[in-house]
């Protein structure tokens, strides 16, 4: 949405700013009396200037002043969503989220409610780019993105939310893989299996699944559980035969005289049967 309400060019806005403050060095935006002398539209224009050419944190202040001085005006509604945007641009995610939530509370039926919900989701999503971060943020991002997708399916933000939802979902799976590899490296095979199983059962649509199946082959072979190892290899071969993970698993299995074939009645065998029936992807 950036600039959705910014209809004037930067040069026009800068000129407008000069006219508003009389080109005076004594203008202090933190002076309540100085702000009260301006109209809601004039304060909004000050915020626009900061969004385009200056400090987004300062822009958020100006938009907040409109909410304070003209709380029931049309400008207050417009300023609130712009404040959420300005805070987000400033990477002040808690305040961006708070402003977006206020917009949703006050104006739930307005067209910009979809964007407010999207900004709220982004306030979580933009903090989960590192696997090592708190996974609570990822769950909150998923929940907020799902709200955009389900409540505003026809909005311009739904498609972007779907893409981000898939990436955030993959991020959770990647975290499980990271921990599983940690256990595998330290030969704690049972703990590793538990992590890789989570990926296969709960995150099977993510890009992490082929590796998770291969790591299960490695872990089960190390534990001497050949039936489970062969079944994991069979699932991998049925779904991802062209991947290097299957090639590696095939080499491990054949190296011990085994096949990538479903064996026994484990949780993996149950999944394999679902694969054959086409109920698991």
UniProtKB/TrEMBL annotation:
Keywords of this entry: Cell outer membrane, Lipoprotein, Membrane, Palmitate, Signal
Main location: membrane
Signal sequence interval, chain numbering: none
Pfam families to which the protein is assigned, alphabetical: YfiO
Protein's membrane topology: Lipid-anchor
Gene3D superfamilies to which the protein is assigned, alphabetical: Tetratricopeptide repeat domain
Keyword Nucleotidyltransferase: no
Subcellular location: Cell outer membrane
Every Outer membrane lipoprotein BamD-like domain range: 38-232
Family: Belongs to the BamD family.
HAMAP family per record: OM_assembly_BamD
NCBIfam families listed in its UniProt record: OM_YfiO (TIGR03302)
PANTHER family membership: CELL DIVISION COORDINATOR CPOB, SOLUBLE LYTIC MUREIN TRANSGLYCOSYLASE-RELATED
Complex formation: Part of the Bam complex.
Function text: Part of the outer membrane protein assembly complex, which is involved in assembly and insertion of beta-barrel proteins into the outer membrane.
Protein's recorded name: Outer membrane protein assembly factor BamD
Gene expressing this chain: bamD
